[in-house]
């Protein structure tokens, strides 16, 4: 935007100007005054401020700010915008003339506050470096250990692990196989591999430039960004990731030795490999548009079948079939979360499906996948592959509607899409937990009722 065009936007959008300067005593000073923009001359005329102490200097640079904000009681603020002009004042016909030599501006209607903040990260790093030089010590951003761990690991996403492992254990329980100690160890091992994957993703996305290129991260997409923000180093995150993998694989080896060695070892190794090469070179599955398939396999059939094998030491088609709906839904979490990341992913060469496909295709595939998910649950119950009480999982289907509508309305608006992304995560969790509840009902009925009615079997 040219200076003349920018000056044209001042009148009617701002009520006054604030002149900020350093006084003769070395202290900062600011005064409010009236103004008149003169776009054709590229200047702003400011009213003279009364009083010698408040009078702005005309022999050095000053800053003139025009700002607007609207309070929303109980909510916050909106309509935030400002224009910041730098230059030297010159007395002209009883007023002060400013011809800007430097301009900064932001308008929330053009760029969200979150994106504005994200674009300021490099400047914030430079500022902290300068402060560090002045103070003779490293100056870095800080976060409490608890919140830093929560952010770095993205701990709340563990629902993606709990659901398929819990489902595999539930299927085994319906077959009369239940070992609570092995079940807990399986959950811990799966959680550790998942956390290792989350942290590794940040390491490789930072190395590839994907995090730096993404200026529209949300609560659910864009990674933890702890490296990008300087909260943790690459070395620290790498060590954390390897530590989680080591614990997870160590427990996995113990489970293999204690149960069905080659089957559990093979399933565990396959799951760990998929999780590592999800973003790690040379495969970089997500960069090749294969992220959804990797997530479907890893957080669907592989985890569920692995959990079943640990309990029953046998193969089960039922465990595989039951895991397919939750595998599809967890892949859809990644799928929808990639929508806001499209511009940054494209710049970094991360060719995810939303980068490759049109909006219409992305939304169509989402709808078809949801229909397939609940169609599989219904077909499984009707065919006898799943217990009848598992039909309760169909109650979660309406959660997909706000996600679908959100994709239609807010495809290009990451922060308006964010609540729908949360609903998509709830869709996976609710469906998975209701499937597990269906199995628990069938198991309980089998133990308490002889014979159990058909609708509880």
Sum up the structure in keywords.
single chain, 457 residues, alpha+beta, Pnp Oxidase, Chain A, Farnesyl Diphosphate Synthase, 3 domains, 16 helices, elongated
Please summarize the sheet with the most strands. 8 strands, antiparallel
Ranges where pLDDT stays below 50 over 5 or more residues in a row are none
Instruction: Please report which band the strand proportion falls in: under 5%, 5-15%, 15-25%, 25-35%, 35-45% or over 45%.
Output: 5-15%
Which CATH class of the largest domain is shown? Answer: Mainly Alpha
Q: N-to-C terminal Cα separation, in Å?
A: 68 Å
CATH architecture tag of the largest domain: Orthogonal Bundle
Radius of gyration: 29 Å
Number of domains: 3
Relative helix content: 40-55%
> What is the string of SSEs from the N terminus onward?
HEEEEEEEEHHHHHHHHHHHHHHH
Write up this protein.
It is a single chain. By secondary structure, the protein is of the alpha+beta class. Helix content is 55%, strand content 13%. It is built from 16 helices and 8 strands. Strands 1, 2, 3, 4, 5, 6, 7 and 8 form an 8-stranded antiparallel β-sheet that branches. Strand 3 and strand 4 form a beta hairpin. Helix 5 (159-174) runs parallel beside helix 10 (291-312), helix 9 (261-276) packs antiparallel against helix 10 and helix 14 runs antiparallel to helix 15.
Provide a compact summary of the structure.
It contains 16 helices and 8 strands. It is of the alpha+beta class and 457 residues long.
């Amino acid at each position: 935007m040219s200076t003349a065009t920018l000056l044209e936007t001042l009148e009617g959008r701002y009520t006054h100007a604030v002149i900020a300067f350093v006084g003769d005593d070395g202290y900062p000073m600011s005064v409010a005054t009236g103004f008149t923009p003169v776009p054709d001359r590229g200047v702003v005329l400011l009213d003279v401020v009364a009083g010698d102490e408040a009078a702005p200097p005309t022999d050095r640079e000053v800053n003139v700010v025009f700002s607007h904000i609207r309070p929303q009681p109980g909510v916050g603020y909106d309509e935030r915008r400002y224009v910041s002009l730098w230059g030297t004042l010159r007395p002209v016909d009883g007023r002060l003339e400013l011809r800007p030599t430097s301009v900064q501006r932001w308008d929330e209607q053009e760029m969200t506050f979150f994106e504005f903040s994200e674009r300021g990260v490099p400047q914030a790093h430079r500022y902290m470096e300068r402060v560090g030089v002045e103070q003779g010590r490293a100056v870095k951003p800080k976060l409490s250990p608890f919140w830093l761990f929560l952010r770095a690991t993205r701990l709340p996403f563990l629902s993606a692990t709990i659901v398929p492992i819990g489902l595999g254990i539930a299927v085994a329980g319906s077959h009369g196989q239940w070992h609570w100690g092995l079940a807990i160890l399986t959950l811990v091992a799966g959680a550790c591999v998942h956390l290792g994957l989350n942290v590794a993703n940040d390491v490789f996305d930072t190395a590839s430039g994907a995090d730096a290129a993404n200026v529209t991260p949300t609560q659910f997409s864009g990674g933890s960004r702890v490296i990008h923000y300087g909260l943790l180093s690459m070395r620290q995150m790498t060590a954390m990731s390897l530590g989680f993998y080591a614990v997870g694989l160590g427990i996995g080896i113990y489970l293999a030795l204690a149960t069905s060695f080659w089957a559990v070892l093979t399933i565990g190794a396959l799951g760990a490999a998929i999780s590592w090469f999800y973003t790690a070179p040379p495969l970089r599955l997500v960069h090749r548009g294969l992220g959804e398939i990797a997530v479907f396999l890893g957080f669907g059939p592989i985890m569920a079948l692995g959990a079943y094998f640990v309990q029953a030491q046998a193969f089960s088609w039922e465990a595989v079939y039951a895991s397919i709906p939750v595998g599809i839904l967890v892949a859809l979490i990644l799928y929808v979360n990639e929508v806001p990341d499209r511009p940054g992913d494209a710049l970094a060469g991360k060719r995810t499906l939303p980068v490759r496909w049109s909006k219409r295709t992305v939304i169509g595939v989402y709808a078809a996948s949801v229909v397939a998910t609940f169609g599989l649950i219904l077909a499984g119950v009707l065919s006898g592959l799943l217990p009848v009480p598992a039909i309760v999982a169909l109650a979660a289907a309406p959660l997909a509607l706000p996600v679908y509508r959100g994709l239609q309305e807010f495809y290009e608006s990451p922060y308006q899409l964010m609540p729908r992304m949360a609903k998509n995560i709830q869709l996976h969790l609710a469906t998975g937990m209701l499937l597990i509840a269906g199995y628990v009902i069938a198991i309980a009925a089998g133990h308490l009722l002889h014979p159990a009615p058909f609708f509880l079997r």
